[in-house]
Design goal:
The complex is a heterodimer.
Chain A: H1 8-61, E1 70-71, E2 81-87, E3 90-95, E4 117-123, E5 126-135, E6 140-147, H2 148-184, H3 186-197, H4 213-263, H5 267-298, E7 306-309, H6 310-327, E8 331-336, E9 341-344, H7 346-363, E10 369-377, E11 380-387, H8 394-399, H9 418-428, E12 432-437, E13 444-451
Parallel strand pairs in A: 1-3, 8-10
Antiparallel strand pairs in A: 2-3, 2-6, 4-5, 5-6, 7-9, 10-11, 11-13, 12-13
Helix pairs in contact in A: 1-2, 4-5, 5-9, 6-7, 7-9
Chain B: E1 2-6, H1 10-22, E2 26-30, H2 33-42, E3 47-50, H3 59-68, E4 75-79, H4 84-92, E5 97-100, H5 105-119, E6 127-129, E7 132-135, E8 140-143, E9 146-147, H6 152-163, H7 171-178, H8 189-201, E10 206-209, E11 213-216
Helix pairs in contact in B: 2-3, 6-8
């Protein structure tokens, strides 16, 4: 089972609504506390006021013992309010709903037998808020009480007044938030649609009209990626086309020569065609080797580095290639100093040196001189390959190393891949290449410098 | 039939030259763009095989330049560039045919024959004059249905005259079409070959226009 990707829309909606509800709840709690406090203060002060009035009134008037007198019920809310007046311990006056016994039980009275101040008591299972007061010389004790429930109902009414609209608004708010989030995410959906509608190989940059700033970074990164992929694909396409081009010519030559050999009656000419067929095969094979080397190098296979004697390596390569030079009556010279040790992969460095020397021999005329030198100078090991050939124009030497680039007008059959390989290997082994004109021989001079390995 | 081959690759050029010679063409081979342009402007070839990736000057440049200069000879582009836009570009620059390497020699020869045929306004495979029928592909000549054995030069000469039937060709024109570079041309070679052709095919077919050259009459003369 695959995990279902969570929706950004739902997430944003949940966050927005969660925050709104939390703010409301906090607001309600604070309102509850404040209203509760204010209400208590107000109503308590009313109780105290009423008690004080009763005390003052009783101190002046009450002389008789008509304790049976019940105060009339004046208002429909009156049953929620009750009072008692005791005169020297005897009940002198009470409201109709007040009990005959003191509202504050004996045990809760203070040492003088009076009760003053606020007290919350249970009378017949109902909670009352009671204020006691007593008047000085006439020994008057007054209790004024009020049902707690009436306070709660006021409090609830206040809260209902504030919270109910909010609760009603919540679904509407959820809807509005959903819509707002949906609208806000429109550029994302548009990007999704744009990307989905693209051809699989389309690499042109994504243009989104009115892209929000939050998305420009993403779009820029995306377009940069498209650019890179495009460049990569273009390079690959060019390489494939060039490689096909380069392989087609030797194959066409092999085919033509083989057909000539098949139809040729004359022995000498048939032999010539067959030899040419073989030469074509060799050339195709060499080209394939070079392409494979290049593609391996480009795949980024890290060369194994070991300390090796560059002088010995160049001597070996020179020995391999000397017959080619002698065939063209060229002079080959090698001057290799001792202890020129570099870090690198022996196979790859051989390929590099072979390409340089092979180029020098190949592109120099008959009777030319090819000179190789390995020296140590300024913490560097320098390999110089120079020849007395025609050299190279500055424009051409700048283009060296472009795959399949060949100097026009050269008679030799090269693939133009050798330099690409040389450059790759040099880069991989940390060497720097300089191409110029040989001051001693007048032809091309190539200098490769490695850091000296200890 | 004399063909110009423009190919910078030594092995391929050598193979194509040898192969086309085996198939009865006279082949001159040049290896760079500048030489190609010079030859195309100056020498009378029946057709040219042109590679595109050439040293010194690109093949397409050469082609466009000689077309601008009014050179009409059929040009077959033989190249490794196979992309459709390249083919289109090649044909639009004046190529008459576009062939991608590698190519079969027999196919190449057939395409060249077809180009030459069409360039002379002859869509049929065989050329005919009176009772003589020449098949360029089989390199055979029949008269009244019977094969007539001809030497290479005689065949080429008859082929030239039949392609240009009704037109007078000078001795120089015929020599240029028949001989490639380095081939010794005896001063009276054309006369000798004409003489042999008349002996084998009858004297009425090829007419001499005194002081001008030779002509093959395509129509039976009114009698």
């Amino acid at each position: 089972m695959t995990k279902r990707p969570h929706s950004l829309q739902s997430r944003l909606l949940a966050l927005v609504l969660g925050v709104v509800v939390a703010v409301w709840l906090v607001t309600a709690a604070v309102t509850w506390r404040d209203v509760h406090h204010e209400l208590d203060e107000l109503l308590d002060s009313h109780l105290a006021q009423a008690a004080a009035l009763l005390v003052v009134q009783q101190a002046g008037e009450i002389e008789d013992d008509d304790h049976a007198v019940d105060a009339p019920t004046l208002h429909r809310y009156a049953p929620k309010v009750a009072f008692q007046i005791f005169h020297a311990g005897r009940l002198a006056l009470r409201s109709a709903n007040a009990p005959a016994t003191p509202m504050v039980a004996d045990g809760e009275r203070d040492h003088a037998g009076f009760k003053t101040g606020f007290k919350t008591v249970q009378i017949d299972g109902v909670a009352w808020r009671v204020f006691g007061a007593h008047g000085g010389e006439r020994d008057i004790q007054v209790y004024v009480g009020e049902q707690e429930a009436s306070r709660s109902s006021i409090l609830l009414a206040v809260l209902r007044g504030t919270l109910a609209p909010m609760l009603l608004a919540l679904p509407l708010l959820a809807l509005a938030a959903w819509w707002a989030v949906y609208r806000g995410m429109a550029p994302l959906r548009q990007l999704g649609r744009t990307l989905a509608a693209r051809q699989p190989h389309a690499l042109q940059p994504v243009a989104l009209a009115d892209a929000p700033t939050e998305m420009t970074a993403m779009l820029a990164a995306l377009n940069a990626l498209f650019d890179r992929i495009g460049a990569l694909m273009e390079a690959e396409r060019r390489f494939t086309a060039d490689a096909a081009h380069e392989l087609r010519t030797p194959i066409a030559a092999i085919r033509a020569q083989a057909q000539v050999a098949l139809a040729e009656a004359d022995d000498a000419r048939r032999r010539h065609a067959l030899e040419a067929t073989l030469a074509g095969c060799d050339r195709a094979a060499r080209l394939v080797d070079q392409l494979l080397t290049l593609s391996r190098l480009e795949a980024g296979a890290a060369p194994a580095a070991a300390a090796l004697d560059l002088g010995a390596l160049v001597r070996k390569v020179a020995a391999e290639l000397a017959p080619q030079a002698l065939h063209k009556s060229q002079t080959v010279e090698l001057d290799a100093a001792d202890a020129c040790t570099v870090q690198g992969d022996a196979t790859l460095l051989s390929v590099l040196v072979r390409n340089l020397v092979d180029n020098a021999i190949r592109y120099s005329p008959r009777h030319a001189t090819v000179r190789m030198a390995v020296v140590q100078r300024g913490g560097q090991v320098l390999l110089t390959v120079e020849d007395s050939g025609a050299g190279m124009s500055e424009a051409d030497s700048r283009r060296l190393g472009e795959r399949f680039f060949r100097v026009l007008g050269s008679d030799e059959t090269g693939s133009g891949l050798g330099w690409s390989i040389v450059k790759r290997i040099a880069a991989a082994s940390g060497a720097a290449i300089q191409v110029g004109r040989s001051s001693a021989l007048g032809g091309l001079s190539v200098e490769v410098g490695w850091p000296l390995a200890r | 039939m004399r063909i110009l081959l423009v190919e910078d690759d030594a092995l391929l050029g050598d193979g194509l030259r040898a192969g086309l010679r085996q198939l009865g063409f006279q082949v001159d081979w040049v290896r760079d763009g500048e030489a190609a342009e010079r030859e195309l402007r100056a020498e009378p070839y029946a057709a040219a095989v042109l590679d595109l990736g050439l040293p010194k000057r690109d093949g397409l440049d050469v082609l466009a330049a000689v077309r601008r200069a009014g050179v009409t000879l059929p040009v077959l582009v033989l190249t490794a560039r196979d992309a459709v836009p390249e083919r289109i570009r090649g044909l639009d620059h004046g190529a008459d045919d576009y062939v991608v390497k590698p190519v079969d020699l027999h196919e190449l020869a057939a395409r060249l024959r077809a180009l030459v045929r069409r360039s002379h306004g002859r869509p049929q495979q065989c050329l005919a004059a009176r009772d003589v029928v020449l098949d360029p592909a089989a390199r055979s000549v029949r008269q009244a249905g019977l094969p007539v054995p001809l030497s290479t030069r005689e065949f080429d000469l008859l082929h030239m005259l039949m392609l240009n039937a009704g037109r007078v060709l000078s001795r120089e024109q015929l020599e240029q079409q028949l001989y490639s570079w380095g081939q010794e041309v005896e001063s009276n070679a054309i006369e000798v070959h004409i003489h042999h052709l008349r002996r084998k095919l009858g004297s009425g077919l090829i007419q001499t226009v005194r002081g001008v050259g030779y002509m093959l009459a395509s129509q039976q003369p009114e009698s």
